[in-house]
Amino acid sequence: MSDLVNLSFRENYWDSPELKEEFMRFLVQIFGIDLSLWGKMGFWDTRYRPFSYFDDNTLVSNVCVYTLDMTITGNPSRVAQISAVGTLPEYRRRGLSHKLTQVALDWARVNHDFFFLFADEGAYQFYKDCGFRFTDEYKARISAPAVVARPGAVKLDMQRTDHIAQVYRLASNREPVSNVLGVSNDKLFMFWCLDSLRDHIHYISALDVLVLYKREGGLVTIFDIVGRTMPIFADIYPYTCHPDDKTVEFLFMVDKLDLERVGHVRVEGNGTHLFGRFPLEGAQFIFPFTSHA
């Protein structure tokens, strides 16, 4: 292993195919995340900015800043999400992640309103040392209403190019899912649609909206609703309902859905942290699931 003083710092290097490929290899090795399909399909987002240490051409430590366009309490906001923080095992305990995090924060604080991130519990102390503070998130839940089912919801196949185009058409022209806390990054949304949400995408042609949801044991989890205009829940649910549904939960703020008798449940496992002034701190809020980088 080379002397650490010889490590080279590089940032914003997506114009280098070799360094970009090394970054993707690093993500697979450290996090088990594969971005190759996302890039191959043309959705790579240059607002996803890396700050990295290299030993020759090997990426050994990394921090990314993802710039997100958000709507917060009705106002447009430019927000920085810290992600992909990691170091190869043989280079750990040398302060590399801490140094890169400070460099990333210094770069981003110039033109971002605040920062947030999601972390495993083992990293809480690290982020506290970097100036972040832990906060709780809360997801809305309602009892599943009794409605008459309507046909017309089609499950999309993300191996079909026409279905991918349909999803991106709506994602790139979407109304924010919430005026309280919404996000509009279409390419980040496409990552989720090509990855872990690919089996949960439904298109309702009568409303021209996508509803991303899963059903398990009477619980319906809605990850996102995407359209040029946002219908209320009473218009959406008949297309997605099932007789066994008991509870519906929402992984985004529900101010546009015109719901009644809404309860809230604390989200487990997100490890949400904030840095800077966040207007909703102290309230029952949740960052939209598809805003996670």
Short recap of the structure:
By secondary structure, the chain is α+β, with helices and mostly antiparallel strands. The protein contains seven helices and 15 strands.
pLDDT below 50 for ≥5 consecutive residues: which ranges? none
Question: Average pLDDT value?
Answer: 96
> Quick one: how many beta strands?
15
Give the CATH level 1 class of the largest domain. Alpha Beta
The tally of helices reads 7
Structural class, by secondary structure, is: alpha+beta
Strand content: 25-35%
Q: What is the CA–CA distance across the termini?
A: 31 Å
| Superfamily (CATH H level) name of the largest domain | Gcn5-related N-acetyltransferase (GNAT)
Secondary-structure arrangement, i.e. CATH architecture of the largest domain: 3-Layer(aba) Sandwich
* Structural domain tally: 2
The protein's oligomeric status is single chain
CATH topology of the largest domain: Aminopeptidase
The description of the largest β-sheet is: 8 strands, mixed
Describe the structure.
The protein is of the alpha+beta class and 293 residues long. Helices cover 22% and strands 31% of the residues. The strands form two sheets. Strands 1, 2, 3, 4, 5, 6, 9 and 15 form an eight-stranded mixed beta sheet that branches. The longest helix has 15 residues, at 17-31.
